[in-house]
Amino acid sequence: MSNSINRRKFIKSISVLAVIPVLAPALAQAAQLDPGNAQAKAFKYTHKSEVAGKTCSNCQLFTGGAGAEWGPCNIFPGQEVAGAGWCSAWIAKA
Ligand code: SF4
Q1: Half-sphere exposure of 71 toward its Cβ, with a 13 Å CA cutoff?
Q2: Which class for 62: exposed (0-12), middle (13-18), buried (19 or more C-beta within 10 A)?
Q3: CATH classification code of 2-82
Q4: What is the pLDDT of residues 2-23, one digit of tens each?
Q5: Is the CB of 82 under 6 A from ligand 1?
Q6: How far apart are the first and last CA of the chain?
């Protein structure tokens, strides 16, 4: 009887632990860059580029995946920029 309860508790514990690696990346996702913050303003960052042919997604400093809506940028560590965004540090992707 007690072995059966202990086994059930053990299996429940394992189930919870198995979910953590699945949820952890989603929880660890970086915040979206606020265009109003001082550094973003200094670089004239915007979520929607108004410069023809220049967006974060085709910038060398964008490290998000191809076609990603949001992704990391080397200029703004720990935050994500919009793939459709732009800032004055834009450099053509090599
Ligand atoms: S440097 Fe500027 S244009 Fe390039 S990805 Fe970062 S925010 Fe976008």
Answers
A1: 20
A2: buried
A3: 4.10.490.10
A4: 566 666 665 565 554 454 454 4
A5: no
A6: 66
61 lines ligand 1 (CB under 6 A): yes
Determine the Cα–Cα distance for residues 13 and 11; give it in Å rounded to an integer: 5
CA of 35 to the centre of ligand 1 (A): 12
* Ligand 1 mean position, distance from CA 23 (Å): 28
pLDDT tens column, 37-85: 999 999 999 999 999 999 999 999 999 999 999 999 999 999 999 999 9
Is residue 55 within 8 Å of residue 94, measured between CB atoms? no
Q: Which helix (H) or strand (E) element contains residue 38?
A: helix 38-42
